[in-house]
Write a structure and sequence with these properties.
Elements: H1 2-18, H2 26-49, E1 74-80, E2 87-92, E3 98-104, E4 116-121, E5 132-137, E6 148-154, E7 165-170, H3 183-211, E8 219-220, E9 224-225, E10 233-241, E11 246-253, E12 259-265, E13 280-282, E14 293-299, E15 308-310, E16 316-324, E17 334-339, H4 356-373
Parallel strand pairs: 14-15
Antiparallel strand pairs: 1-6, 2-5, 2-7, 3-4, 3-6, 8-10, 9-10, 10-16, 11-14, 11-17, 12-13, 12-16
Helix pairs in contact: 1-2, 1-3, 2-3
């Protein structure tokens, strides 16, 4: 029975979480089990919402279902495609900093990243004055079995920008009713969910080993196009390990790109709590110094600074900077480890002091910003 396969997959996934290929604390185990819950949820969603005849845009990654160092500023949508059909994606452009489209030959796996068949942002679409647009595509793009459409709607200012609307339709099945549900179909979907669950965990154990942990600790790479990502997205990656009395100062030029951000994540290669803690910042959310530099402090203790990135109990984790909607490589970051006690006397940080009340207001704004998106 396929339900037995899914039960077995959950048990296997639990063992992967309890015995990962890295050391974990009790807190990290708890977060891993929470990550597992989100992964189970996403596997069921992807398996049961999957419909090649009548595709829908699925939102499988959000604050309750994290994966692949998910971007706190992005709303993600996926749709499954077939090789011999034509489609129309339509909607209304919102006011977010970026809206991008990517068709991949398959999904990410523990053996590698899929090929990109098409990738662009909405600047390549004819967007009408009222914000509406339409994009038609089909086999001419080289669609294959397992091809996937990924749409990313990315915020810079969580409180000022608004989502648009999106829809996908397969043209040759428009007006054709969906077939009745059957036991065979449901069992097949539980079997698919089982493969998705264990495959997802294995993939995101492997991915950071290929790219992130190859780099020396407490460093960030020069900006480069993101592996498996968009040609108009650059990223800088790294990982940190800090004692409680240490801080990491990251300095990077404020870019002209419409979207620029920094985030920290956990050993599970997922975002940490960005709704109730400041574990990420966009340029719009950051203090920019008069010299055009963004200076961030990553530390366990609160330094009383606007650009503090909270480690939320993680002595070690991953870091990523992103720039989107740009064709030019941005200026890269510099990184230094300093004693936490030295931060108070650093002149370069003097202009971003905040009071506890001001910082609490920043957290409230994050909570409101996430609620406005209604991701769940």
């Amino acid at each position: 029975m396929s339900l037995d396969l899914f039960r077995d997959a959950i048990e296997e996934a639990e063992q992967l979480i309890r015995n990962p290929p890295f050391d974990i604390t009790e807190q990290e185990l708890a977060e891993g089990l929470d990550y597992l819950a989100g992964s189970i949820r996403s596997a069921i969603q992807m398996a049961f919402d999957h419909d090649l005849e009548h595709p829908v845009l699925i939102n499988p990654t959000h604050q309750y279902s994290r994966q692949g160092l998910d971007n706190p500023d992005a709303v993600y949508f996926n749709a499954n495609l077939t090789s011999d059909a034509s489609y129309v994606v339509s909607g209304r452009r919102g006011t977010t900093a970026d809206l991008s489209f990517q068709i991949m030959s398959g999904g990410y796996t523990s053996s590698g990243t899929p090929d990109t068949l098409a990738a662009f942002d909405d600047r390549s679409l004819p967007v009408a004055d009222d914000g509406t647009f339409e994009w038609r595509f089909g086999p001419e793009l080289g669609l294959r079995k397992g091809s996937t459409l990924i749409v990313r709607e990315v915020y810079s200012d969580w409180l000022a920008e608004d989502r648009g609307t999106l829809r996908i339709q397969r043209l040759d099945t428009a007006g054709v009713p969906r077939a009745p549900v059957s036991v065979e179909r449901i069992e097949k979907r539980y079997a698919v969910a089982a493969k998705l669950l264990t495959g997802r965990l294995a993939t995101w154990f492997a991915f950071p080993e290929w790219f992130t942990y190859k780099e020396p600790v407490n460093t960030l790479t020069a900006p480069a196009t993101t592996p498996g990502g968009l040609p108009t997205q650059f990223s800088s990656i790294g990982h940190y390990a800090l004692a409680d009395d240490e801080a990491l100062v990251v300095s990077v030029p404020a870019s002209a790109a419409p979207y620029q951000s920094i985030q920290v994540g956990s050993k599970w290669y997922v975002s940490t709590d960005y709704e109730h803690h400041q574990t990420s910042l966009t340029r719009a959310q950051s203090h920019v110094d008069d010299d055009g530099m963004l200076r961030y402090v990553i530390s366990a203790q609160d330094p009383g600074l606007a650009n503090w990135l909270e480690t939320t109990g993680h002595a070690a984790g991953v870091m990523m900077l992103r720039w989107q909607r740009t064709d030019q490589a941005p200026g890269g970051p510099t990184v230094s480890v300093v004693p936490f006690s030295s931060l108070a006397s650093m002149a370069s940080l003097a202009h971003q002091r905040v009071t506890p009340a001001e910082y609490a207001a920043r957290i409230e704004a994050r909570q409101v910003g996430i609620a406005r998106r209604m991701i769940s």
